[in-house]
Specification:
heterodimer; A: alpha/beta; Rossmann fold; 3 domains; 4-stranded parallel beta sheet; 14% strand; globular; B: alpha/beta; 44% helix
């Protein structure tokens, strides 16, 4: 990728995980700029979500001298200061600079055990992109997990914590699960705690946010024997299939819940009867025509045709989740048809 | 500093990109990882390019990654500016020589070292402009306006206000540096007025700043001495604006006590704003939390480069009114707030608000009075 890369680096990906853990202090071992970029992003999100909490993000503030002589002593001093605050967890993220100057971050972190100090290797480009950082951090946090008996409930794994509508997606999944009597026992790691992460081995099923989290799903399956479903439900049919699939894992009859959800979907479709006969064209971020299986499923149900010469409609990314997501999507289709 | 808190101010890469990316004919490449590209790209909303250096490039040399992107864009720009981030500065590759070897001496490529570990926003901004090294022409009629920055939430408004006050014409050609109206290679005038005194770089004589009514008057008076044509602004517009501010502040003071204020932002600008609040509203200036230098001034100035420092200052001073960024608004929701410093998150901003000049002063005082009245009424 040489022009216009549109995502943050490994560091941002890992931060999107560690900053969700209540009370956790995240140390970014590198120059101030790396911490500022990311803290600014979290501030923007916190303001947009009207959430007054800001994560504790700290920079080891490496300067020219540290780049020449090494930054391990500086890191050690800052971890010590962080531990004195008695947080439940300290996470240390490396940066390109500390990767390049060869600081042994892992070794410095090993010197601390209470509170736990976890090193997450996120040396920017040296470690990959945003998604790699996200995955790396989730895997690293499982070192907190203790052996646990399986319980009747699911874990939500790998939510995109920077998504503006993250909570709406979560609420819809939790609502769907409640219709078949299955509770969410852990969110790994949205709005989580170190204690809850320690119990990540106990849910009987992991529900991944989307297929990009399959490496984490496989990792947890290997480590704790927990099977996984690889995505939140998308579209009308996808939502019904999701209920059936979860039901199979827990050996429960979901036919009643599925019928009720289908009826709910039909009521929603009736609200949008005015869309019948319209045609739309699904567009990607640069205005290019794109395909979307959940939309292909939805369009005939509502009497809308998808054609290249239809009214351009930007395909939401991420695609809205569940039946509630379909409703929000239809509102946007209708707005597009009014325009 | 090595303190336990999150930094609030961008590093030199963002400063350098903010200075160069708006200029017509300059293509800006951030030579480093995608992470270093992401913030300036999303904060400045201007075309930027990135060499997207990888671990392989660090081991085998990043010249190839950089040359690919230079090759892609060099024919589209009169100058390709390569901003070197921390990693190329650490690895110390001689990319200047290799790029000249590859693209020939006729390719106009400028390599600028602005690693984040060696400086912050202001240093990067100035370093980039110094490297641009525009020709200075004494035959230009009009000043150079420096310090306009696209990181500033008032950027568009400031350009409009500067142009309104100093409108370009057939015999008068002010230079608005760091805007799309300025083309790479065009001369600048040896007389500089600062739209932002903290970002100012002087070409020749210093003509003052446009922050605040008094400073704007001084700057226009000086211009009037060299070039005529500002009588209307000096004799009618500035006194008129000042009268309106005084009348509004008097009206406010009939009902309320003046606020005790804490200001957060770049030192020089905040000192000027504080003077204006003291002069017109008899406000008590508790503290200026500086994002850049923390030298003492007419008012107490302390460093406020980290969120922890901001929280501490605000809990100690307990101001009635805070001027600053949305970080300060978040840290002190109980005070009245006026946004003057980036970032300003959490509110819709469609209009091009100015911060400089006469309109800037009016907007500021009106925002302060409205915020204070709303606060008093709640």
């Amino acid at each position: 990728m040489t022009t216009h890369p549109d995502g943050g680096c490994t560091l941002s990906g890992a931060l999107s995980v560690t900053t969700e853990i209540e009370g956790c202090i995240t140390i970014i071992h590198g120059p101030r700029g790396c911490a500022h970029h990311n803290f600014s992003l979290f501030h923007a999100l916190s303001v947009a979500r009207r959430d007054p909490r800001l994560p504790v993000v700290v920079s080891s503030d490496l300067g020219e001298r540290d780049v020449i002589f090494g930054g391990e002593e500086v890191l050690d001093a800052i971890i010590k200061k962080a531990c004195e605050r008695k947080p439940p967890l300290v996470c240390v993220l490396s940066t390109c600079v500390t990767g390049a100057i060869g600081d042994d971050v892992e070794a410095v972190c090993r010197g601390y055990s209470s509170p736990p100090v976890i090193s997450i290797p996120t040396a920017g480009f040296l470690g990959g992109g945003f998604l790699d950082g996200h995955i790396q951090a989730l895997k690293a946090l499982t070192s907190l997990a203790k052996p646990a008996k399986k319980c009747r409930g699911v874990a939500i794994v790998g939510e995109k914590t920077l998504e503006y509508e993250r909570e709406e997606h979560y609420k819809e999944v939790a609502r769907l699960l409640s219709t078949i009597g299955i509770p969410v026992v852990t969110r790994f790691v949205s709005r989580s705690t170190a204690g809850a992460i320690a119990r990540i081995g106990s849910p009987s099923l992991n529900i991944l946010r989307d297929p990009s989290m399959v490496p984490v799903g496989k990792f947890l399956e290997k480590k704790f024997g927990t099977p996984y479903i690889e995505s939140f439900p998308l579209g009308l049919g996808g939502t019904l299939r999701f209920l059936e699939e979860v039901g199979e894992y827990f050996s429960i009859d979901t036919s009643g819940a599925v019928a009720e959800e289908e009826a709910r979907q039909k009521r929603i479709l009736c609200e949008f009867a005015s869309l019948r006969g319209q045609s739309i064209s699904l567009r990607g971020p640069s205005g290019e025509p794109v395909d979307s299986p959940p939309c292909r499923d939805l369009a005939p149900a509502i009497g809308v045709s998808i054609r290249e010469d239809g009214r351009p409609f930007p395909l939401p990314d991420p695609f809205p989740v569940g039946t509630a997501g379909v409703r929000r999507l239809l509102h946007r289709w209708r707005r597009c048809c009014h325009a | 500093m090595h303190e336990l808190s999150a930094p609030l101010w961008p590093c030199s890469i963002t400063g350098a990109a903010a200075a160069l990316a708006p200029i017509k004919g300059v293509g800006v490449i951030i030579h480093g990882s995608t992470g270093c590209f992401y913030y300036p790209s999303s904060a400045l909303h201007l075309p930027l390019y990135c060499s997207a250096v990888t671990d392989q490039d660090v081991i085998l040399g990043s010249e190839g990654a950089l040359a690919r992107i230079v090759g892609e864009i060099k024919d589209r720009y009169a100058l390709v500016a390569i901003l070197c981030t921390c990693i190329p500065s650490i690895t110390g590759e001689d990319i200047r020589e290799s790029l000249t070897g590859r693209f020939g001496p006729e390719a106009n490529i400028r390599v600028i070292d602005v690693p984040g570990f060696a400086g912050e926003y202001e240093e990067g901004f100035r370093a980039a402009l110094r490297s641009l090294d525009p020709p200075v022409s004494g035959s230009l009629i009009g000043p150079t306006i420096s310090g306009l920055s696209p990181l500033d939430p008032f950027y568009q408004g400031n350009i409009q206000e500067a142009k309104r006050l100093l409108p370009p014409g057939p015999s008068w050609s002010p230079v608005f540096l760091c805007t799309p109206q300025y083309s790479y290679g065009s001369p600048v005038s040896p007389y500089t007025i600062h739209a932002n005194p903290d970002l100012g770089i002087d070409y020749g004589e210093q003509g003052g700043t446009l922050v605040g009514i008094r400073e704007t008057r001084k700057a226009i008076l000086r211009l009037e001495k060299s070039w005529n044509g500002f009588q209307d602004v000096l004799e009618r517009e500035i006194p008129g604006a000042e009268q309106r501010i005084i009348a509004a502040c008097d009206r406010y003071l009939k009902r309320f006590d003046p606020p005790d204020v804490a200001l957060f932002g770049q030192r020089e600008s905040m000192l000027l704003v504080a003077s204006m609040l003291e002069e017109y509203l008899d406000a008590g200036i508790l503290v200026i939390g500086s994002r850049n230098q923390a030298r003492p001034g007419k008012f107490p100035v302390v460093p406020a480069r980290d969120y922890g420092a901001v929280e501490e200052i605000l809990s100690q001073e307990r101001p009635d009114l805070v001027l600053g960024s949305s970080f300060e608004r978040q840290a002190c929701p109980e005070a009245a707030f006026v946004g003057v410093t980036p970032p300003l998150r959490g509110s819709v901003r469609l209009h091009a608000w100015p911060f400089v000049g006469i309109e800037g002063a009016l907007v500021l005082m009106e925002s302060v009075l409205n915020a204070c009245m709303d606060h008093e009424n709640t």
